[in-house]
Design a protein that fits this description.
The chain is α+β, with helices and mostly antiparallel strands and 96 residues long. The protein is built from three helices and five strands, in the order H-H-E-E-E-E-E-H. Strand 3 and strand 4 form a beta hairpin.
């Protein structure tokens, strides 16, 4: 299940009711934009106890369309790789 930005903002508002919705929205926008800018610069982004985002290059390759079995050439592109932290791994696997 993915979390929508609206759900994230709702949860933040519940936890910090003294902040206005506009301030919380602006804060989330700033954080997400800074992550995007860092990834565009090919920098890695580390969020302690959550994980690390890095940009990797996916090499060009020939792939197959599963519906038509037609071969398709895919160009080299950048992809975002996320690696969870050890703390996140422990929380997900109920080791704490």
């Amino acid at each position: 299940m993915a979390i929508a930005k609206s759900k994230l903002l709702k949860k933040l508002k519940e936890n910090w009711p003294n902040f206005t919705q506009a301030h919380l929205n602006k804060t989330v926008d700033i954080v997400l934009n800074e992550i995007k800018k860092a990834l565009r610069r090919n920098d890695s982004v580390e969020l302690r106890t959550f994980g690390t985002f890095k940009v990797r290059i996916q090499k060009a390759s020939i792939r197959r369309n599963p519906r038509t079995a037609e071969k398709v050439a895919v160009q080299e592109k950048k992809v975002i790789h996320w690696k969870m932290s050890k703390d996140m791994f422990k929380k997900i696997n109920n080791e704490r």
